[in-house]
Write a structure and sequence with these properties.
By secondary structure, the protein is α/β, with parallel strands linked by helices. The strands form 4 sheets. Strands 7, 8, 9, 10, 11, 14, 15, 16 and 18 form a 9-stranded mixed beta sheet that branches. Strands 1-6-5-2-4-3 form a 6-stranded mixed beta sheet, sandwiched between helices. The protein has a 3-stranded mixed beta sheet with strand order 12-13-17, with helices on one face. The structure holds ligand BES, manganese (II) ion (MN) and zinc ion. Zinc ion binds next to strand 10. Manganese (II) ion (MN) binds next to loops.
Length: about 500
């Protein structure tokens, strides 16, 4: 567990503040303005001299550190480049300040900026930059000594709560993904979801194997058949106070494969090691529901997660098998490693039954999307241009990289089956698109967006807000979406 540090606010001059390091975010063209210029004066021009010697311009990632030797209450001043604009630099600034505190063994770090950054994003970034997953270590690799992070900027009403709630949710999602598969089975994931629901006053319905059988969710059952761990369908619901007939509702659906071995189409070494992350979509959706208790959006929110393992035990589903999904369409299995779209098919059909105005699904669906977009950007597919644009805007606000991909119906022939309504895999080319086209078959006419988060759900580096392992990608975008959805869907 990462121990928490306090976040406080300093309203006087930055010169008065005693701390181990005063971290000042600097924007290109305004590198030495605001608090940086105050500090420079107090140091008799030293900061400006170092900035010029080091050719510091405020470029993203640039950094300059100056010891003050008692000429300032802050022992050190650190200028941190935020690039062109401070708009999305708040998270970076907060993360770099908290990381500096952790890595240098500082107890007290202060944060200021030469241009306006939002306190909310600094708080979010600081919590995320300080996050580590140490649950299974006997001794934490290097315990953080950070006790207080002091913000030298206004914290408008409510921003602290929003920043903290967003960061807590993202860290919960990271914890869920980082937990080893042996201790994050579908049953345990469902227990975690129940705990989130009970602490936040949400309704919870859990379907176990018998219930899934009764309901006819044959695709979830097929995927889970190769494992002795039983599947679950998790359904959480947020209902705001005073629900009326006009209260809009939306559904969030997250792929919850707690370990993807590929089934009989077993993944090779090199592709299988990190496959506990195949519930990144589920983690994001469940964690988002945790933050809802703070956000209290005035709309009904369904969170639906099909949870299963994908193994190759003796009862495993086979190639050539045909199963009927929850919405009645039949699917021929042509690749047991294309399991995500199968469990999502049942879950999306179930989501449609809740009659939401919009469905957003998040899934670590295809390796192909990482070939197209790299490891840090999620692909956005959908059947409604306005909703796609809305999600893209939410991602931009939330600081998560999204890219619009075509739901190209020319590729639909790839998933035609010789014996059933469709098969679960197309060709290698356009693999992320055929995955999305498959999902589209299960949303009926409901407005729907699919985020393929196979790349950004997992990080291989510790840098800024990113930490190795699960990233919690999607939570920030979903919270942004929910905070705007009530007003948008009423209008
Ligand atoms: N969970 C994987 C996708 C994935 C790959 C996520 C790499 C994160 C990193 C998914 O279930 C899968 O195996 N997809 C196959 C689809 C193919 C069989 C059509 C893939 O990407 O190879
Ligand atoms: Mn797979
Ligand atoms: Zn998978």
């Amino acid at each position: 567990m990462t121990q928490a540090f306090d976040i406080s606010r300093h309203s006087g001059s930055v010169l008065d503040l005693a701390c181990d390091a005063l971290v000042i975010g600097s924007v290109i063209g305004h590198a030495l303005e605001g608090p940086a210029s105050e500090v420079d004066k107090a140091l008799g021009g030293l900061l400006a001299a170092v900035v010029s010697e080091e050719a510091f311009e405020g470029k993203d990632g640039q950094r300059v550190l100056v010891h003050t030797h008692g000429r300032l209450n802050a022992k050190r001043v650190v200028l941190v480049g935020l690039g062109k604009s401070a708009d999305d630099g708040g998270r970076q600034l907060g993360a770099r300040a908290a990381r500096l505190g952790r890595e240098s063994g500082f107890a007290k770090v202060a944060v200021a900026a030469s241009a306006r950054v939002s306190a909310r994003s600094v708080i979010e970034g600081a919590r995320l930059g300080h996050y580590t997953y140490d649950k299974w270590r006997t001794t934490e690799s290097k315990p953080s000594k950070l006790k207080t992070l002091t913000l030298c900027m206004p914290i408008p009403k409510g921003e602290r709560e929003l920043g903290e709630a967003t960061a807590s949710a993202i860290m919960l999602a990271r914890d869920l993904v980082n937990e080893p598969p042996a201790t994050m089975t579908p049953r345990i994931l469902a227990d975690q979801a129940r705990w989130v629901a009970e602490s936040g006053g949400l309704d919870v319905t859990l379907f176990d194997k018998a219930a899934l059988n009764e309901k006819g969710m044959r695709l979830i059952l097929a995927v889970s058949a190769g494992s002795s761990e039983e599947p679950r369908l998790i359904h959480l619901t947020w209902r705001p106070p005073n629900v009326t007939a006009d209260t809009p509702s939306v559904a969030l659906v997250g792929k919850g494969i707690t370990f993807d071995a590929g089934g009989l189409c077993l993944k090779p070494t090199g592709s299988i090691e990190d496959m506990k992350m195949d519930m990144g979509g589920a983690a994001a959706v469940i964690a988002t529901m945790q933050a809802i208790a703070t956000l209290k959006p005035d709309l009904i929110v369904h969170a639906i997660v099909p949870a299963s393992e994908n193994l190759l035990g003796s009862a495993a589903y086979k190639l050539g098998d045909v199963y009927r999904s929850y919405n009645g369409k039949s699917v021929e299995i042509m690749n047991t490693d294309a399991e995500g779209r199968l469990v999502l098919a049942d879950a999306l059909a179930y989501a449609v039954e809740q009659k939401p105005r919009e469905i957003i699904d998040l899934a670590t669906l295809t390796g192909a999307i990482t070939i197209a977009l790299g490891d840090e950007t999620a692909g956005v597919f959908g059947n409604d241009q306005a909703l796609i644009q809305e999600i893209l805007a939410c991602g931009a606000e939330a600081g998560e990289a999204l890219w619009h991909m075509p739901l190209d119906s020319k590729l639909k022939k790839q998933i035609k089956s010789d014996v059933a309504d469709m098969k679960n895999v197309g060709k290698r080319t356009g693999g992320a698109i055929t995955g999305a086209l498959f999902l589209e078959e299960f949303v009926g006419g409901t407005k729907w967006v699919h985020l393929d988060i196979a790349g950004p759900a997992w990080s291989t580096r510790n840098e800024d807000t990113w930490s190795k392992g699960g990233t919690g990608f999607g939570v920030a975008t979903l919270l942004q979406y929910l905070s705007r959805a009530a007003a948008r869907l009423k209008g």
